[in-house]
Amino acid sequence: xxxxxxxxxxxxxxxxxxxxxxxxxxxxxxxxxxxxxxxxxxxxxxxxxxxxxxxxxxxxxxxxxxxxxxxxxxxxxxxxxxxxxxxxxxxxxxxxxxxxxxxxxxxxxxxxxxxxxxxxxxxxxxxxxxxxxxxxxxxxxxxxxxxxxxxxxxxxxxxxxxxxxxxxxxxxxxxxxxxxxxxxxxxxxxxxxxxxxxxxxxxxxxxxxxxxxxxxxxxxxxxxxxxxxxxxxxxxxxxxxxxxxxxxxxxxxxxxxxxxxxxxxxxxxxxxxxxxxxxxxxx
Amino acid sequence: xxxxxxxxxxxxxxxxxxxxxxxxxxxxxxxxxxxxxxxxxxxxxxxxxxxxxxxxxxxxxxxxxxxxxxxxxxxxxxxxxxxxxxxxxxxxxxxxxxxxxxxxxxxxxxxxxxxxxxxxxxxxxxxxxxxxxxxxxxxxxxxxxxxxxxxxxxxxxxxxxxxxxxxxxxxxxxxxxxxxxxxxxxxxxxxxxxxxxxxxxxxxxxxxxxxxxxxxxxxxxxxxxxxxxxxxxxxxxxxxxxxxxxxxxxxxxxxxxxxxxxxxxxxxxxxxxxxxxxxxxxxxxxxxxxxxx
Lengths: 283, 293
What we know:
A: two-stranded antiparallel sheet
């Protein structure tokens, strides 16, 4: 069972939901929690532990100028403008390179080979018995999030229960995280911003054919428009979490609602049962 | 022209709320750009009157001609983005995964693959109270959001290059759209929140912003929800020599304003709007200073 937590809008409480769900479920059976928000991963802040960390690399071209004839075919081919061939010099812009390997294929002299370049890290830890936490972290200044998301997902591909926390937005990092998931929880807040972005995120899960339900977070009771949207789009509201300064404070200091107020564990267990029903997984 | 980007690292800290208020309060003519292109919200509090819509063409994508394809599998073997799928007996390209590298066109022995232009969004140009707003809609799930950010900024500068100020509502995160938003700006306003996550993400986004050498200002939003972390942010800013320019209190009037489709400063006096007015004045003084540098 692979369950993604997404939202469209940032800051609606994706990580809060993912962390509390994983914390609660791990008391009963092994759970893997994956931080796919690799640009700004936060789950490790709620689960301090000593992880084993390794580099995530991409192959980038290295051009042997002793063999190169400056024919310019690599620069012409590169769709990203990462290689400029001058009469007697080659300029390579590593930050623009998408690591497609095309330049090595088109070089008639075989003057290009590839070497790994670090773009971020992958950390695995066991902060609690039964809980495996996998965090991808993009190096600051590196633009490409998707290859790191691919790596962190691979790390948990055979695990029985995987909860994936995704990045905000609806672009490629979110799609990369969602692909192959059995169900998705969309976390929203009852504001026009939350609702607008919930609409975009719902569109993405429909396109990917992933069944989804909704959590309304920080509800101030004025949820009518969100409820109407969910009904119109056939999205079940799986849980409503009220706004309270107490909950906000638990979250801001890096603690867990289900640890401080154990009565919430029942709600998150029930959330998981509903998610399994969505996914059509045998109970 | 003074160019200011509002960013945050962590999502949902209040970038759009601050940008919307500043668009009304900063002096001179302003061109606005919503560079959070895959979850764009600035227009929702600007009552825009749409003037023009232009297609956004992202990177070209590969297309396999089924009549020429012999299903040899060379494209699938060489594609590093897993964008080649098998549909029954035929290969086809998963456009949302295709990054447009064109490697498949090189390795295909039957010339069955070609690169085709594709529209992955629209760029919208609207009239708003402060001048013009350039915003966009990315096809949900499409790639190239960094490229679309670049196109949005370019449209704003081409059409309204004579404006006094260029105000950009940026995306969360630190990746390609954020880098594209911050590049070329004179000043960056980082809106953060007092929490372990807010501080962690603030530090990362500051590291990225610094590579472009803008003047950096930090705003702590909803500061009174966690005074301990507000203090930690203050300490961090002091140690790093960053200007902490404002602390905005938690204020339900902000949500009321968003629900009413306007900046909080338009809704009348409230704790947050008072502080944001002072922020705008203080920022104005700093920007004049920047302009004369």
